[in-house]
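User: Before I run my own analysis I want an independent prediction to cross-check against. Here's the chain; please return only the structure tokens and, at the end, one sentence I can use as a sanity check.
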Amino acid sequence: MREKLIKIVGVVVLVLLLCTLLVPHLILMLDKQEEVAESYAYSKVFYDEYDDVRTHLLDTVDILEEKGYDVQLSSHAIDEADGLFIDTIYIPATEKQTNLIVLTTGVHGIEGYIGSVMLDVFWQEIYPTEVDKDNTGVLVVANVNPYGMKYHRRYNENNVDLNRNFILDWNSFDMTVNKDYPKVDAFLGPQKAMGNALWHEASFYGSLVVEVVQDGADVISNALLGGQYEYPEGVYYGGNGDEESTTYLKNVFKQTLESEYENVVHIDIHSGYGPRYNMVIFNSVFETMNEAESVELFGYNNVIAYDSEAFYPTTGDTTDYYYRLHEQMGVDTTLFSTCFEFGTIGDSFIDSIISMKYTIEENQNHWYPTNNKTMNEIVKERYQELFYPTETEWREKTIEDFSVACKGVLKAKLVSN
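Assistant: Structure tokens:
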């Protein structure tokens, strides 16, 4: 009996040992992204490094100037020693300042890569034929979060989520606005390095079950999406005052509303949320058009408005701030500010768990780097998939959707003389 028990224990130990050694490599193999195809639409401008994106942007300025456009370029240093800049391109209306198109990219650093591609689509497919240069100017603020872009993070150099940092008045703002985050902080921000991938997976899903039973799924969801202002090492941290990038973009917004332009149309480009292979126009809670009206007006089916089932409120995002600033200034300028969001993982319940998991893992690995090489590679692959997939079908669909949606919004919102 004793010998049989020893054999059973030995087999169990051997199986566990083999799983510990082999399963992480299997997980990495399954999480590896698709190899980048050699040729597809705009394939040459799907860059993977911030320096390449910035070089291409500066080259684009030269090309636009060669075409005879009055291009005004300015670069704001976030960290000059590290080569981190916010670059702004402005082409004024040639005759009458009626419309101003404002495009912002890279508010969430890593999302600036897909934003860079969409700027190319704009300059090549939309600006030449869809924009009346006589009465419409264009203002591009590119790579708003250059640190996050260079180091492939959503957050900036201070771990701040800039799209939760656009607070109108910090003096009156309630830092404890997110009442649910403190309940699940230990789950969302583990203070230890990840080890073997197999045991990490088991630990995560075990902890998730405990949290759902203890606090409920809605508490976790609310804690994540709204932004939080009490845990500097946590996910979706909105900061405790304006970040330098925020101050810069706030001033840009203010200048646009003080300008001679009568009508401002703003599109902030993001990725990560929504159904895969679909870009969503995500309107601000301050936009009065409902979903049905927006779909009809823009001629684009994927719109989330204040009355949509999929709508969720956030605190401190750029589009809401733009509207609130507009109201505070009391100007006559007409404003439409929205977000274009490219879905990556998906929008099912399981997809939302996966997105949350990848977000937690990246942040955990930032603060408590793993010594496990395989686990580190898994985290990087997953985070890339969350914001910038390499799949050819996904990349080509982003271009198609952006082109249709951008043309629809501009046709509906730009004013004729």
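Sanity check: The chain has 13 helices and eight strands.
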